[in-house]
């Protein structure tokens, strides 16, 4: 009985400590990447603003179909998710000739979900790798379509 009480007390203390530490972590995680594309701005904007084109270049194409185009240079995509919290992708398209595409991904986590905050810190690197490969595919696709 003494060992069970000791175990339960430790479980409560360490669980509470884990929760309190998670409250100190930020509830918003952001990652951003950019790439320079040697293509016309309209070609790049068409690939990003049309969700049906995403399967050709975006690793996260199945995540959302809720897309909002603010201007011809700004595309905002909201990915509601129970598992990952709310994700927002923001694409900024700047320049002509050599177009700079910036992709910012922001994840809003629930304050009361400590595992999610720790998991977001761990998965941040995989988000960066996916964004890198997606932007590289976008660059190749847009530069190939430049001649057409």
Tell me about this structure.
The chain starts with a helix and ends with a helix. Helix content is 47%, strand content 28%. With 148 residues, the chain is of the alpha+beta class. The protein has one domain: START domain (Alpha-D-Glucose-1,6-Bisphosphate, Chain A, domain 4), CATH 3.30.530.20. It contains four helices and five strands; from the N terminus they run αβααββββα.
Task: Name a few traits of the molecule.
single chain, 148 residues, alpha+beta, Alpha-D-Glucose-1,6-Bisphosphate, Chain A, domain 4, 5-stranded antiparallel beta sheet, 4 helices
Chart the SSEs and their pairings.
Elements: H1 2-24, E1 28-38, H2 41-49, H3 54-57, E2 67-71, E3 74-79, E4 86-94, E5 98-108, H4 114-146
Antiparallel strand pairs: 1-5, 2-3, 3-4, 4-5
Helix pairs in contact: 1-4
Helix/strand/pairing category: alpha+beta
CATH superfamily: START domain
> Would you identify the regions where 5 or more consecutive residues have pLDDT less than 50?
none
- Please outline the major beta sheet: 5 strands, antiparallel
**Helix-strand sequence:** HEHHEEEEH
Q: If helices are DSSP runs of H or I spanning 4 or more residues, what is the number of helices?
A: 4
Please give the domain count. 1
As a percent range, the share of strand residues is 25-35%
Cα separation of the termini: 78 Å
Order of strands in the sheet with most strands? 1-5-4-3-2
**Strand tally:** 5
Question: What would the principal axes of the Cα set say about the shape?
Answer: elongated
Percentage of residues in helical conformation: 40-55%
CATH architectural type: 2-Layer Sandwich
**Mean pLDDT across residues:** 82
CATH class: Alpha Beta
For the CA atoms, what is the radius of gyration? 20 Å
What do we call the CATH topology? Alpha-D-Glucose-1,6-Bisphosphate, Chain A, domain 4
């Amino acid at each position: 009985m003494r060992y069970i009480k000791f175990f339960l007390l430790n479980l409560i203390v360490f669980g509470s400590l884990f929760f309190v530490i998670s409250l100190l972590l930020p509830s918003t995680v952001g990652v951003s990447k950019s790439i320079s594309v040697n293509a016309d701005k309209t070609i790049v904007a068409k690939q990003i603003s049309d969700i049906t084109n995403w399967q050709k270049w975006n690793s996260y194409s199945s995540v959302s179909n809720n897309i909002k185009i603010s201007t011809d240079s700004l595309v905002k995509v909201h990915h509601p998710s129970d598992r990952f919290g709310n994700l927002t992708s923001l694409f900024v398209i700047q320049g002509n000739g050599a177009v700079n595409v910036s992709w910012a991904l922001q994840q809003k986590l629930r304050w009361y979900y400590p595992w999610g905050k720790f998991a977001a810190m761990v998965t941040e690197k995989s988000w960066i790798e996916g964004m890198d490969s997606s932007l590289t595919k976008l660059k190749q696709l847009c530069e190939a379509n430049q001649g057409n």
